[in-house]
């Protein structure tokens, strides 16, 4: 009787191993961190918050472009760790399914043997009772042999009952494996629908269309300012930071100029990320100290106001040399006509979609703001516009598409209060609030490439988003 017992023991041991694997390993594998899988035909969807992201977008209310790409995160694509984990899991389930199928065939074969034994045992038990009732008619020796055989078979009765239960469990395992395999195959097909290369090409195509769309936008009128986004906390209360609006898409260098006077050191960072982490790529020691915080980097050069003068300096980062310098005729300097916060902010240099500008005040214009468009190479004044807004009453100002926007304060409750269009030589009073989160703005400049305002807000380097009203060019426009 020992061989059948060994067979049953091997079967039960294998089933115990399967049960242990199913109950411990499988749930953790199936979890896949973000997706819950059940053994039914239903599949819990991946949460959009966890599995999807806006890859790129531009809005178009009232005539602005709209182009939004919504795509699965790359860690859901076919080449990432989760996808490999899913394929490995599916292979394990398939291997497990094959193993259970082999076990099932062996079980069915042995089960038929056990059923036959069960019939024989029942018949033997009945016969034994009959013999026991009539044992006086048989020889004592034969009776004893029969009783010993019955004693050997008795331990198989509970094993047989357990075997029947385990056979049902194997059937249940087969059903669960089948359901699980169906669910995993469904997930694989769903993920496989977003082939990485195909998805990448779609994103590239949409980004190209987005850039083409943005190029069709004519200069717009400021409608709203949102934010700010705090990029970094560093430096003194006053300073400037900027990127080059004419730089290529791959060039994201940041320049950092702390304080409004008594400094000549410009710090350069290769990217916003390096700027945030403090990983400087280079420093420049300017030949002159600067005045104020209203400098601008434009087409690879730094434009700044030389300390204690109305001279504008053009400094090349590539050569480390001064390329041009010119006196801004009649412009007040050294806190004669600063913004409300002071800090030698008499001359504000800025750039927009049209070119390079200087904003300042003169005695000839009664201390009111003068706007001058400059030649970026020679610093010669190309044209000037005289406004009626007192320079000392302005908190800060910036140019967008040839229009100067002036804030009423550098403190709390600041808003864009006044604008002057150089295209029409007209002004208007506006009411565009923005959140002065840190209560003291000493630098506010527009970057046409980023379509954002860079600000130095009480030792915080922040960004504001701007919403412009655009008119979209068409092929018929001349």
């Amino acid at each position: 009787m020992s061989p059948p017992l060994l067979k049953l023991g091997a079967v039960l041991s294998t089933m115990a191993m399967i049960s242990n694997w199913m109950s411990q390993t499988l749930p953790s594998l199936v979890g896949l961190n973000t997706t819950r899988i059940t053994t039914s035909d239903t599949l819990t969807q991946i949460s959009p918050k966890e599995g999807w992201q806006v890859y790129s977008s531009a809005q178009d209310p009232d005539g602005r472009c709209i182009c939004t790409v919504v795509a699965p995160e790359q860690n859901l694509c076919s080449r990432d760790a989760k996808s490999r984990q899913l394929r490995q899991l599916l292979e394990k389930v398939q291997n497990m399914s094959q193993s259970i199928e082999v076990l099932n065939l062996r079980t069915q074969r042995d089960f038929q043997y056990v059923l036959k034994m069960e019939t024989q045992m029942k018949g033997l038990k009945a016969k034994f009772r009959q013999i026991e009732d009539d044992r006086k008619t048989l020889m004592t020796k034969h009776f004893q042999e029969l009783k010993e055989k019955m004693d050997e078979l008795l331990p198989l009765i509970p094993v047989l009952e357990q075997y029947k239960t385990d056979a049902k469990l194997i059937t249940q395992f087969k059903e669960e494996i089948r359901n699980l395999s169906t669910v995993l195959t469904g997930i694989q097909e769903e993920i496989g629908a977003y082939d990485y290369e195909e998805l990448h090409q779609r994103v590239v195509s949409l980004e190209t269309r987005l850039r083409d769309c943005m190029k069709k936008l004519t200069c717009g009128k400021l409608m709203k300012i949102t934010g700010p986004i705090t990029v970094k906390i560093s430096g003194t209360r006053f300073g400037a930071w900027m990127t080059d609006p004419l730089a290529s898409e791959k060039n994201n260098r940041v320049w950092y100029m702390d304080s409004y006077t008594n400094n000549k050191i410009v710090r350069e960072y290769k990217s916003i990320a390096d700027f945030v982490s403090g990983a400087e790529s280079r420093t420049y020691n300017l030949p002159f100290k600067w005045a104020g915080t209203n400098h601008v980097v434009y087409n690879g050069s730094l434009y700044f106001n030389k300390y204690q003068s109305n001279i504008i300096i053009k400094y090349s980062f590539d050569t480390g040399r001064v390329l041009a310098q010119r006196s801004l005729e009649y412009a007040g300097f050294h806190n004669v006509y600063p913004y409300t916060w002071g800090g030698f902010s008499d001359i504000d240099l800025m750039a927009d979609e049209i070119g390079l500008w200087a904003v300042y005040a003169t005695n000839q214009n009664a201390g009111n703001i003068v706007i001058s468009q400059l030649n970026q190479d020679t610093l010669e004044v190309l044209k000037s516009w005289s406004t009626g807004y007192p320079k000392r009453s302005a908190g800060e100002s910036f140019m967008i598409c040839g229009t100067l926007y002036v804030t009423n304060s550098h403190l709390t409750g600041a808003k864009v209060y006044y604008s002057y269009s150089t295209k029409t030589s007209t002004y208007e009073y506006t009411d565009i609030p923005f959140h002065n989160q840190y209560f003291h703005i000493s630098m506010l400049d527009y970057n046409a490439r980023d379509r954002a305002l860079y600000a130095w807000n009480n030792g915080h380097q922040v960004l504001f988003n701007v919403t412009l009203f655009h008119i979209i060019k068409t092929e018929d426009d001349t």
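The two ends are 101 Å apart (CA to CA). DSSP finds seven helices and 22 strands in the chain.
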